[in-house]
Amino acid sequence: MCCESKRRFLLLYATQKGQAKAIAEEIWQQAGAHGLEADMHCISEMDKYNLETEKDPVVIVISTTGTGDPPDTARKFVKKIQDKTLPPDHFAHLQYGLLGLGDSEYMFFCNGGMTVDRRLQELGAQHFYDTGLADDCVGLELVVDPWIDGLWLALKEALQLQKEKEGMNSAVDAVSSSISTAPHAVHELKLSSEVQNLKLEDEGARASDTLSQKLDDINLVTPARDTEPSLVHSVPPVAQSALNIPALPPEYIEVEFQDTQGENPHLSSLISEGTTFEVPVIKAVQLTREDAIKTALLLELDIADTTFEYQPGDAFCVICPNNVSEVEELLHILGLSEKGDDFVCVKVKQDTKKKGASRPQHIPERSTLKFILAWCLEIRAIPKKAFLRALVECTSDAGEKRRLQELCSRQGASDYTRFIRDSNVCLLDLLHAFPSCRPSLSLLIEHLPKLQARSYSVSSSNLYQPGSLRFVFNVVEFPASPSRPVSRKGVCTGWLAELVAPLLHPNKNSLDTKGKSSLAEKISIFPRPNNAFHLPADPSVPFIMVGPGTGISPFIGFLQHRQKLREQHTDWEFGETWLFFGCRHRDRDYLFKQLQCFLENGALTHLKVCFSRDSSTAEVAPPKYVQDVLRLCAKEVARVLLKERGYFYICGDKKHMADDVSDAVVDILSMEMEADKLEAMKILAMLRETKRYLQDVWS
Question: According to its UniProt record, which cofactors does this protein need (predicted)?
């Protein structure tokens, strides 16, 4: 191991989008101020650490992805520790503390961290510090900050106990003396993301890794008329507080402009998840009317000449670039408009103080500046507090500098949540709001996360349409707000909509001799199989599908597949199928009116639809939402789930639909079983556990 001192601890992170890594780096940076040294590694680098022989305390920071899965970087690790042949005392020597990251908008909150935590416990490992579960729905920092604050004393006590066990009491005087001055505490923080348990108080400068910035250190005149805080303006008490701000992250990247020319890397080099496929978009259809509130598009990809494979219910990812105008605007603000097509070389600064610094994997060593900003960096990402702290040093105006300090401080935590996190503010918004801030390109590479490929549900069956793949999406719209004065479209959906515009509105010049479009743009995709959201293996098992709006997408693939199976296997027994679909207006956004065809050919047994915004003259108002229609079919739903052991699938919006559907199912089970609500919830939990109640949801 790289750190020989007994004040060493092992720090592992497992990240999907970079948050867990950023938090681990924050722990690593703070460790030195507490007389400790973190031996930090990605959990996937199993050749650089060995938990089987690890004697020092272990700190693990791990996120959750998909439907409660560990991040991709942790898959090999999880598979290794889940080996059923491992004895129950396999990790009896191990002391660890775990910080899990998740989002309570999704059903399996922090399940990636809890899976690792539970398995380590089963194998005999012991907590030296209580597990923290941070919720991105309310703000990770509400748990992360106090968890890190309490970590240092727990680590020192764990190290002291370890040395006492080894009979090396003479070597622990320094650690003992540092602990004896603090009141003894049992480290059971019981950290959860319930906001009522996490009211952070202004505690002054509490640690050596924070900086105190007093108001009278700067000349800041606050207009008396501004009584409400905003992104650029604060009010008391924040405006008059001494601030605890994070330590300045060390710089570690340098960028050199080169005179030589060449070619940019292939997009496949940016992806570590597996094989990528460059495929043409051969069809685009707008499924909604022009006056619909949302614009839904169906795209068809030609995968005939590839080895791309999928099942109905699977997802796949689209590699997309940032918006061209936003990239140009960023280049302009950085004063690099004339250098966008110049090649740059990105490497690690020789004199950096960052431990184990390396060029980020998603940044090519050599490419054009535009390539990095367009394809590599998530320029729409919500800036982390460490980034704000670094931007302070790039800001010349005293008032702007102070406000950025406030936004990254403990005292300004609620302002950060309100004006940056909840307002979806990005780097461009900050640079407009704080015009004296002029960061370097290297700073952007250090702090902006990887531009993530976007995931979409497959809306077709390879049995029904061999050689093609379809998917459906809404073009996402982000309206302007006080913190973000311009409206924007989704990074990927906006790009796709612009890309396929010629297919949606073809002219004579874009058609070939057969009347088909000759403007087949290509996109890069890679598979992301869903291990659970598939049709029942036994075709005689009945199932229920709930998919309002574009949530119907995977169920089109289900029904196409079922139709083809019925044609090919006339002697098979097929279970009944139910589809509950809802949208706003029957004539504007009823996405797949051809559902009637599935009813006619028998692939679909029951179709229930509702329209939430259509007016009705009926004496009894029709149901507005899918959960209302489910309740009207309570006996049938209970029969399918309880008597016939059927499956229940939900796809669509998590916050405004999936939770309401779940509540409706609990009510149905309670009513039809004549049981109390708790018993019904246990039945639903059992259905989830046995993979008969399945969700593909987003927030």
Answer: FMN; FAD
Strand partners, 473: 297
Angle at 232 between CA 227 and CA 233, to 5 degrees: 25
433 CB contacts (<8 Å, ≥6 apart)?
231, 232, 483
Name the residue among 453, 455, 459 with its Cα closest to residue 298: 459
Q: Residue 326, SS3?
A: helix
Within a domain: 642:
yes
User: Mean of the per-residue pLDDT values for the chain?
Assistant: 87
Question: Residue for token digits 């949302």?
Answer: 294
Q: How many Å apart are CA 414 and CA 233, to the nearest integer?
A: 13
Residue type, 402: R
The tokens 């005392």 sit on which residue?
89
Contacts of 267 (CB under 8 A, 6+ apart): 276, 278, 319, 375, 524
C-alpha–C-alpha distance, residues 696 and 459, integer Å: 13
Which amino acid is located at 302 in the chain? D
Largest CA distance in the chain: 89
Dihedral sign, CA of 520, 526, 530, 535? positive
What gap in Å lies between CA 440 and CA 393, rounded to an integer?
11
Structural domain of residue 551, as residue ranges? 543-697
Mean pLDDT value of segment 467-489 = 93
Q: In whole angstroms, give the CA distance from residue 238 to residue 226.
A: 14
Whether residue 688 is contained in a domain is answered as: yes
| SS3 at position 429 | helix
The CATH number that applies at residue 549 is: 3.40.50.80
Alpha helices of 225-380 — where are they, by DSSP H? 324-333, 369-371
Nearest 5°: CA angle at 325, between 320 and 330? 100
Q: Long-range CB contacts (< 8 A, 24+ apart) of 329-338? A: 329/428, 330/373, 330/379, 330/427, 330/428, 330/431, 331/369, 331/370, 331/373, 333/428, 333/431, 333/438, 334/438, 334/439, 334/441, 335/438, 336/369, 336/441
**Tens digits of per-residue pLDDT, 172-230?**
444 444 444 444 333 434 444 433 333 333 333 333 334 444 333 333 333 444 579 99
Of the three residues 164, 194, 219, the one that is the final residue of a domain is 164
CATH number, domain containing residue 118 = 3.40.50.360
- Residue 505 domain flag: no
State the pTM of this model. 0.80
Going 79 to 82 to 84 to 90, the CA torsion angle's sign is positive
Side by side, the strands of the sheet bearing 543-546 are 606-611, 577-583, 543-546, 647-653, 693-698
Task: Report the domain count for the chain.
Answer: 2
Give residue-wise pLDDT tens across range 271-282: 876 789 999 999
Give a yes or no: residue 667 inside a domain. Answer: yes
